Give the backbone structure.
Amino acid sequence: MGVLHPLVIHFPIALLLLAFFLEVYGLSPSGKKYKASIPLITFLGGIGAVFSALSGYLLMNQGDYEVSSVELHRNWGIALAIGSALLIGLYRFPPKIPHIHLLGQGALSILVLVTGHLGGNLTHGEDFLSLDKPKKEPKQIVLNQDALVYADIIAPIFEEKCVACHGKTKQKGKLKLDQIENVLKGGKNGFYHVSEEGKMALMSHRMRLPLLDKQHMPPKGKTQLTEKEIVIIEKWLSLGASSKLLLKDLQLTEEVVSASMEEKNIGKTADWPSVPDLAAVSETMLTPLRDRGMVVLPLASGHPLLQINCQSLSDFSDKDGELFKGLEKNIASIRLSGTRISDKSLKWISGLPNLSKLYLDNTLITDEGIALLKNTTELRYLNLVGTSISEKGLRTLSSLPLLKSVYLYQSEVKIEDMAEIQQRMPKVYFDLGGYKIDTLTMEVRTEEK
Amino acid sequence: MNNKRLSLAEEAHLLDAQLATRRLFLKQCSMGLGALAFSPLINACTSDANGSSNTLFDPTKPLLPKTPHLPGKAKSVIYLHMAGAPSQLELFDYKPELKKLDGQLCPESLLKGKKFAFIRGVPKMLGTIGEFKQRGQSGAWVSHYMPHLAGVADELSFLKAVHTDQFNHAPAQLLMQTGSARLGRPSLGSWVTYGLGSENANLPGFVVLTSGGQNPDAGKSVWGSGFLPSVYQGVHCRSHGEPVLYLDNPANVDGNMRKASIDAINQANQETYKEFNDPETLSRISQYEMAFRMQISAPDVMNISDEPAYIHEMYGTEPGKESFANNVLLARKLVEKGVRFVQLFDWGWDVHGNSTDTSLEIGLVNKCKQIDKAITALILDLKQRGLLEETLIVWGSEFGRTPMQENRNGLEMPFKGRDHHADAFTIWMCGGGAKAGTTYGETDEIGFYPVDGKVSVYDVQATILHLLGFNHETFTYPFQGRPFRLTDVEGTVIKPILS
């Protein structure tokens, strides 16, 4: 019966508003002829209102909603049901006071609107009518081993994947997952965080059920938990589910930790520097770069680090370095391939603390310029194809701790010098290119069929 | 009537006056009302349930570069599709056991409940003709059919147990490239250009190059844009002569005039857009503009004959001819210039054994010769330019071949050949965040079914999208009232091959 509530309510809303409308219309001569139908419409609407109130009451008692948040909607609903019953009665007698029906219908319409709105808030969420909803940006936090397991990792997971059904307004299975106290309280079946007689904790049991199982959480069709998230939640539960537990207490394997960080798009991925406190730059700051013809994009949506591509700008020169003022910290990758820059540009480039990819291929830079890079400690990738860089310039790179690959095709570096350079920088991959592929022959065997 | 020739302006004026009649007014009124009633229906096709249309698509700048969900490793893709399906059992999936069974009748148990494209009755098993060796440090199996590629085996990431559910070329190609065996879905390249745009405003974001004398069986739909705006469909370049026709201005027309005429066309289109509000009109405008810019940039990029001799030597290219090698070199040039997705189709891999060209002994050898050196060159060339890290190369086909010898119509075939096989075949990836030197997945002793690491076509697609920075489950386009994705309701990223 309770499940019918969302269906039934549409009748009183439509009918009672219609009755009011007809009362108003009835004031004008052309609307007179409809007046006779108003009592019937009001009667039907009133019955609908009573049924809505009843079914709503049953729905509330099923326990999926918190009483305090439903209370207001309930009270208005009851008032509406009583009000409509009174009004039906009123039509039975000739009106003593002029326009009493109109006033009554008006009051009832107000009740309908308020009740309906409050109910809407319950099903669609408080802010479903507000126009500028705050967009939910994925939070950028860095996970280190000292992160709080509940506050930094689990709470955001619940927030994202469970709270819609287990939160303030709805509590399916009488379970709330919005605050740690409520998590510990558990739902209608209580909370077992330690496995009892080898039984899994209720929560992990339900998370581990096959997707098609009716009891699987989150239900099929909703955003699912990842394996890593389940592992973390289970570990946390089995260790007592305290809010004080730190990530290192869980003693997860390195693999799980890094994968869970990666999945949440947070923390340090080997490819890019970790920048927990860096704010994203505003779009307006990027306009001059875009107007200049550069391609400027964040690494991922909402990421503060930028990758910049100037490759197609054949007139890009040293003086364009000016344009990057104020963005120094945000630049993670810059592609200057084939531009007209010279050693002078290496000055501003070396002032980019988070630079991890640098393309200088086919430019006029020399060993002197490259020597300036010794402080860009986040540099991982350096493309020097088609430049006049020689072994002398390469040596100066040995102070870069994260450097992973350097491309030197068509540069002045000679193969003879590489042995020594490689020894100095054993972890770096140097590619001198110039591959030749000998044409190998493959005999065509014509066998008898 | 007078025979005086009207000037252009007079003629335009006259036409204008003729148009503004009472009849026209009435006509527009009725049509206008119809259009009014119809427009919510049209919108229902392109906006989601909340009525908001998609944010990724700005019809005035459809190819504007965009950011993916996560920092992707790959920035562009070169997809090498061998249309017709090469034999994995000759090239990569080594089955010594199968060799021992050569010539024996296929056990009934394997045939039960199976449908084949051509095999009828009980066929014979066919031992591999490839001479296999483990290559490089990774020990990947590559046969003598691919002697050059064998040398770069350590760069590759093999999927040995891919399966599909289609055993005919056209539907299987569609499934591989669009995620559905039926027509109407956008191709992988379209999805990617829709999601990432292009970093080079002067070239198309998605280029298609074909070789082997024929287009793939599934036709141009394999690079179609389906329900995505049509700007995202693949631009098919011609395989001999000029890759793009009419890039030169016609005689007596100079650049300024060309620009002026395109501006005029665009203005007319703008007005049409104001009237009908169809975003396709805006796409058309941006395509005209792109075409104009391509006049300047394309001849340079599209022309491989400017490449130095040693590069031609490396790839085995012959400028001017239609060849896979030429396309591969062109693909490198395009990716270098910022083109997002280059799709190559090479036709002629359907090795049934019914003619010399389709025989494992001769035809397959010749096909391999056409691609082996060129692909190896592509890998090494991208590598030396520092671009392999961010360019994903995918090599594969729509399905594999049976361990049984084909017996079309129950008869013995003139040459050795194999039938279509959907249950297990090999695909490899290289660069762009695929883990170099890995082999994932294994088939049974005769290469019939996967026994380990079985992956589906959707898993492959999900992985490609992942490498580009997309979550394939949330990368959607609203159409007909629901969000669509490339992988529909399937697909898991193949983590073991991620670097």
Notes: Residues 2-128 of chain A form one domain. Residues 133-142, 263-268, 443-449 of chain A have pLDDT under 50 and may be disordered.
